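Slide 14.
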Amino acid sequence: MHTDFTALTAELSRISNHKRIGRVAAVGTASLEIAGLTHQARIGDQVSIALAGGRDLGGEIVGISESRARAMTYAPLEGAAVGREARLLGETGVHPDASWVGRIVDAFGQPLDGRPLAAGAATAALRHEPPAPATRKALGPRLSTGLAVFDTVLPIARGQRIGVFAGSGIGKSSLLADLARGIEADIVVYALIGERGRELRDFVENVLGPEGMARAVVIAATSDQAPLIKRRAAWMAMATAEVFRDQGRHVLLLVDSLTRFAEAHREIALTAGEAPSLRGFPPSTANLIASLCERAGPGPFGKGDITGIFSVLVAASDMDEPVADITRGVLDGHVVLDRAIAERGRFPAIDVRRSVSRSLPGIASEAENAQLARVRRVLTAYENAALMIQTGLYVPGSDAAIDEAIELWPRLDAFFTERSPEGVPASFERLGTLLAR
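Slide 15: predicted structure.
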């Protein structure tokens, strides 16, 4: 009987046949210094620190000087002491497998649901360059999302990268789960970064649900875990998506949230000695975000695509805070969730007027673009006159555009909450009916 030993052979090849050992030279509150590894260690290499009682503490090299290497650890430093053995493990890759679909894994590819998990034969680096720009395809066709507002006013194309900008408690996670269930894709890779531990199972079972999990790989790093793990979870999700993309599949990647990824990097960078810049974020933050987002998008010719949706936490609706400002500049569109809309009970609480999809106008027909332009004119006219309308100061008949907006705005506001199980054409047909006066 023929037996496939590919996965086993790949696993055996990853076992190192030698050890590089250093010694802990200093222990601080957030990092430790290791002597004896400066000529072998590289930034990003993993280390294992021997503790009392035969325990080991994992970590990562974040800085190297002429005499010492600085490492941060994946768990608190209790038990670390000067003179303890520090073993250099080197850089570890990612080994996603088709059996991961429907499972929850951590930032190291280990299962979080208590069941065994296979490692694939393919090896992908956590960090590497995106595909060369000249080899990448253009954006693909428009995707059906199951939500009327995205099927019409804010379309998502295959390979597009958009940001969802929202404060806490406005329905961001629910919107991402709706998109995970509704967007046409072969596999969904969902990165949950910095979420509260108790919310993980609730999200998987109740928000994402069996329908969403049937084609999803969930990669989670909870809020209590070290910043190294939170940052690694985002890279793990991207590398996993790239492996499936290179198999020719269309991957939907959702990262929740990019802000916690950037905050984790800020803590690591400051510990490594990088100077803080705007609002405490180091200068490397902009490149970090751009390099992650650029790895998503249309794949090289002959391979699949990664459609990326990245959430950004926006405190006090400040769209000019560093992470939001950086992210908005590198993505192909942004969706803004507004607390005032959520408070009046309309979900998803999308501020359509402030949201943009950069796949337009090319992705829509001339007739569809005309409809969308009219929608935005109506929204602008209503919002500009909202104070007069709500206080009773506006006299009907004074302005034809405002009269039209008063008539159409309630219909459009309700339309933005609708689901569209029949797809894009049916959504535009429904929109055309609403706009008919």
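Speaker note: The radius of gyration is 25 Å.
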